Structure formats: structure tokens, C-alpha cells
Amino acid sequence: MTHFAIHTSDGAQFTDGPPDFGKNSTKFEGFQGKVKTFVFSEDGKRFAWIADGQVFVVEAPSWERIGSLKHPRAQEICFSPQGNYLAIWESYVKTTDQSQIQPNLSVYDVTGKKPLKSFFQQSQVNWQPQWTNDETVFARSVTNEVHFYKADDLQNIVEKKILQKVRSFSISPSTATHYVTFFVPSIKGAPAYVHLYRYPNFKEASNALANKSFFKVDTIDSFWNKQSTACLLLTAAEMDKSGTSYYGEHMLFYLNTRGDSTRVTFSKPGNIHSVSWCPNGQEFFAVYGTMPSKATLYNHKCEAIAEFGSGARNTVLVNPVGNIALVGGFGNIAARFETWDIAARKKIGETECPDSTSFSWSPCGQYMLTATCSPRLRVNNGYKMWHYTAVLLHESFVNELYAAQWIPDPEAAKPFTISTTPVTGIESSIVAASKQKYILPSQRGAKGPVGLTNTEKKFLSEVDDPTKNEAPAQLSKSALKNKKKREAAKKKREEEGEAEKGGNNWREAGPPETAAPVKSFAANIELTGDPEKDKKIKNLKKKLDAIAKLKGEQENGKTLEKNQLDKIATEEKLIKDLEELTL
User: Fold this and answer.
1) 297 with 291: CB under 8 angstroms?
2) For residue range 40-56, what is the model confidence (pLDDT) as tens digits?
3) Fewer CB in 10 Å around end: N or C, the chain?
């Protein structure tokens, strides 16, 4: 059975996953009160939260409180991988005279229930210290240096790496041999670079196992595989000087402990939205490119080995078992996801999950938890449970939900047979927004508006035809004169047409004659002697002659093209222009 924790305005509590939704089979009674944040250790054996100016810690399986620490300004907490150590970050403040500054990063031995040391950590960004998975090494970054300690003794620095302007570092999640990457951004036009070392052999630059340098890089995110044999570096530049992306420019690099360093190339231009290692450590996914973005599986040689479609997606996450990949869109695009059978390269299911702000796989790899959390969204706050076939199993809504998180259980990730048959689920109670195009009531197939008064019907008819009740425009003397001329010319053309149709109806047998072409109104127009006017008159006569020819073809039964009909429609305007020139 799976369990997860939720953080609401009422406090923090545990609840059961499938099949007993809404129950709590754990022994944790919850905490009633205002909770700032909570966190689990990676093995799921310990749980801590901040409330009432204190940090509380409980321990599985009884989830009894094993201690509390007074930290009135505590904002962030984190466990070491096995939960034996706890780090607490408080707001960085100075005294009024600024003569005394209190350390704001405290590290405790949870098992021994004793403080180890307090440090100064001004920035909340990347405040977390790092441990190796076996919890033998502790490390933290200071100005131009990275300090390494024995995890149980923080009084003495064991190793130190000095690098001017070092921006960040990353320790491999290993339990035996440990590796570290160091990132230094560009300084005075020099390229930025990342060095990969084996701990603690980083005294000399020549000891680096792998190196990678690059331009246009401001920050780096490091993603180690589970075996600690390779690392993906997702680089980001805040500004894309080519102007192709508002979100800057991204690149992805692969480094391994054998010394290989490769840039991963993509088949579509655009940013790299998400990367995820498979648990086997030999393959990884990437979602990349302008929308619709692509999802591709790569091997350890950075070769594309499978494509997983394209669409509006910016996230990929492989389940703990390593047989299903979630590919979806969250955040600034419509929330939806697809699940794929990695081995079969086959889509299992897809669905929409509106307003989701967080998502995660269950420890067993068969369920997904999505949540709509405040303050990101303040409507429809709650969480939903999904089966890997993209079927909704359970949903729950709360007043204010701040977080929903699975209780880690590394032993739950066991292989299972994937089924593409959807399980029995439920319909969401959230009414989805209509995607149908809005159609005016008068155009919905009804003869007219129903249940309206005569005044309303008259108003709607006037809206539909705004020219219906318009008063006739008052014409000037010249316009009235031109109108009379056009009417006389039209009458003359009609009389000539009737004359051509009448006359002697008896004819001798012979070959059929073609109908006479329509006579152009411009044929009787004479030149004025003014070179400028005559040039315009000739141009207008040429256009009217072409129109007359088209009208003749139309009367003979020829079907005209749209552009030819449009040309005929301009005849009246051309005649008016011609008359104004000959006045």
C-alpha cells in the first residue's frame, strides 16, 4: 500500500493511496496548526516540518515525535539521504548595529540528537548542503571555495577545492567511490567550464577525469544517474542573442567517470524543457524543441534510439521501476500527460489534468499524484490519483492545499507487467471549460429568437441588418447630376439590349452565331484635350472595355472566376470616376 502526505491550511497529515483512499492506516496522527513546510528523508523513514517557530521530527514506523528544535526564523529544512542528519536554514538577519551576525544554517545529528555546527549562509538560493548517499562526506559552498567534511564531524575541514568564482558543485549519489563536479561561469570573456573529479583527488587541475568548456552559459543543473557513473549537464543562458527564444538558450552535455564528454544533439531547434534518467543508468529521456516539442530516448553514447511523439509537453519523468515514462505539459501550457511503455515504444494512455501544479510517480511506479496547490492557483485546490493507464482513480478538494507528496519507499519499486487496458475509474467533478466555438443565437439553426418581445425582436433585426432603417443620404448637386447620368446610361444599355433581342425572328438555316458582345459605356466618352485627364480617361476606358468583354462572356453562359466577378463589381465606381473626369 502507498501513502502520501498533504500540507493544508489546517496542518500536515498522512493519507492512504490505492486502494483505501481517504483513510490513514499509518500511526501518524498529523499536526494541527500552521505549517510552513515539510520534508521526508530519501528512505522515507523520517519526517520533519516547521511550525510555531520550531522544527519537529518524527520517525517510522510508529511516527512518534523524536524531538523538536527551536528556530523562530526557520524557512527551509532538508534531510541527508538516510535521514541521520538535518539541515535548517533561517532568514539571514543582522543586529541593529551590525556588530554581531548570528549563523543561520544549522546542522544536527538526528540519531545522536545533538547539534554539529552552525554556518553563515546568506542566500536562500542553493542553500542546501550536500551529502554522499552513504553519509560519510558533507560539503557546502562558500565564496570561491567548496569545503568538505566528515559528515559526523563538521568542526574540521577535511578537503578544500579553491576555484575563483565557483558557482556551484554536485556530489554523486554514491555509496562507495564518490565524484564531484565543479562549475565556473565565464569570467572576463573566458569560457565557462565544468570539471569532474574523483573525491578527494582534486588538488590539481590535471587530476580531472572529464572537462567541458562552453560559452553562453550562466547556470547549470546536474543530473547524476543512479549508479553515479555519468552526469547530464543542462546549461542555460539567460539571454538568447540569436533572438529565437524568449527563455534564453539551453544546451545538454553528457560526462562520465571514464572521461567522456559529449554534447547531446537534437533533431529540432528550441529549448530543452526536461531530462530524466532511466533507473538502469544507461538511457535517458529529453523533451526539447519549439512547440510542439519532441520526446526522445537516448543511450549512453548520446544516440537517439526511440521517438515518443510530439505535442504540447515540457516534462518527462520515468517511474521508479523504469518501464513507464510520463510525458506531459504542466505550468505555462495546458496540463495533460501521456504514459508510454518504454520497452514496447507504445503509448499506454493519455488524459488532461487541468490546473495541475505538481506531479510525481508513486514509489511502486503504478500510480501518479497530481495536485493543484496554493499560492500558484487558489481555485480547485486539491489532489488527484491516477493509474498509469491515465485513468482517474480518486480526487479530493481542500480549502488551501500547499503540497502533496508521496512517502518515499525505495523497496516498493518492483517489476510488474504493463497492461494497456484501462482500469475502472471515476469522472472528475470539475466541469471542463467548453471547447466549442461560440455561435450567435440567430445562427444556431432556429428560425429566430424565442420568448422575446416585439421591441427586442425589432432591435435584434436592426442589429443583424444595421442598414435596414437608415435614412436615405442627401446627395449634393454634382452627385445628383452624376446619378442621373448613370441612370440614363443604364436605361440606354437596357434599351439597346432589348433591341438586340427583338427584330426579325426568322432566319435561314446556317451556322450558329455567337452573341454580340456587351457594348462598353466608355465607347461614347471623348477625350478632353488635357494630357493628364486624357491619360486617366484612357486607363478607365481600358478597364471598362475589359469588363464589357467579361459581361458578354457571362451572358453567353461562361462561368467566370471570382477575380473576374470582382472586376465586374467595380464597373459602377469606374463609370463614376470617368464621369467626374469628363465633366
Assistant:
1) no
2) 999 889 999 999 889 99
3) C
Distance CA 146, CA 183 (A): 11
**CB count, 10 Å around CB of 38?**
21
Give, as one character, the DSSP assignment of residue 533. Answer: H
Q: Which of 66, 62, 65, 67 is nearest to 27 (CA)?
A: 62
Q: How many residues does the chain have?
A: 583
pLDDT tens profile 483-516: 788 888 888 777 766 555 544 443 333 444 444 4
Q: Residue 171: which of 163, 182, 162, 157 has the closest Cα? A: 182
Q: Which positions ≥6 away from 393 have C-beta within 8 Å?
A: 18, 21, 367, 385, 386, 387, 423, 425, 426
**Which of helix, strand or coil describes residue 226?**
coil
Q: Is the pLDDT of residue 4 over 90?
A: no
Radius of gyration from C-alpha coordinates of the chain: 39
- Using alpha carbons, list the distances in angstroms from residue 167 to 21, 188, 240, 318, 427: 45, 15, 21, 29, 48
Q: Which of 551, 546, 578, 541 is nearest to 493 (CA)?
A: 551
DSSP 411: G
- Interatomic CA distance for residues 573 and 47, integer angstroms: 83
- pTM of model > 0.90: no
Asked if 234 contacts 255 with a C-beta cutoff of 8 angstroms, the reply is: no
- Which residues are CB-contacts of 133 (< 8 A; sequence separation ≥ 6)? 81, 82, 173, 174, 175
